[in-house]
Amino acid sequence: MSFTDVHHHLLWGLDDDGPKTRQEMYGMVRRAAADGVATLVATPHVAPGLRFFDGQLFLQRLEDARVYAAQQGLNLILLPGSEILFTPYACEMLRKGQAPTLAGTDHALVEFSPRIACQELQRSLRQVAQAGFVPVLAHCERYACLVRHPALALELKAQFPVCFQVNASTFLRRQGFWLRRFLKRMMETGLVDFIASDAHNLSSRKVNLSDAFKEVSKRYGEETASRLLGSNGKAMVKQL
Ligand SMILES: [Fe+2]
Questions:
Q1: How far is the CA of 18 from the centre of ligand 1 (A)?
Q2: Closest Cα to residue 240, out of 104, 94, 38, 129?
Q3: Nearest partner of 159 among 135, 193, 194, 192, judged by Cα
Q4: What is the 24 CA–ligand 1 centroid distance (Å)?
Q5: Predicted structure pTM score
Q6: Which of 61, 75, 107, 173 has a CA 20 to 30 Å removed from the CA of 156?
Q7: From ligand 1's centre to the CA of 7, what distance in Å?
Q8: Which CATH code of 3.40.50.12780, 3.20.20.140, 3.40.190.10, 3.40.50.300 fits the domain covering 3-237?
Q9: What is the pLDDT of residues 155-179, one digit of tens each?
Q10: Cα(119) to centroid of ligand 1, in Å?
Q11: 89: CA distance to ligand 1 center in Å?
């Protein structure tokens, strides 16, 4: 099984919480390939209007990682992307092409404050959709309003194109009542689009898609696991 990881903080020195050195990034490249990742979208944080995003440096670091993967003979395709914190400037940055979308497609990985209210989440996602992008809600299990009201996910999907991404690690840790209920509903109703690593380093937040694949296969069947960890992402990155 080869995986498509659509959320991965691979590039060094761009994120406060990502890899700190080139060597650490190289280690993450090797680790991703060893875990079975065949296509990886590098998604550093972008915080529109709050922090300068160095697009030039981003492309240099991506190229560095690509050259390294090729030198090592790894079967790993590395693509550009970002995880965009939704701020009043997010749509403008997207429209101007200053915040990388996932693999250059019309899909934009977006994140919010975990305590965002339902209406605000709905309004913000709609704004991204109205700007001409398909919002991919990063680690959707992190938003209390959605976890408490999973029906909102269905409502959103009915209103405009939107995708939901869950972190692989969420399937591998102990879940409380609300999270367990939310995931079960989302999975059983087919509302989850992608399971991705959201890897940040080689220790506490490392890539773990093979373990998640086993767990999701056990709970929901191998076909579902293959779709959410592989083919859905593959189809999305081939959109262009
Ligand atoms: Fe992330």
A1: 9
A2: 104
A3: 135
A4: 17
A5: 0.96
A6: 173
A7: 6
A8: 3.20.20.140
A9: 999 999 999 999 999 999 988 999 9
A10: 23
A11: 19
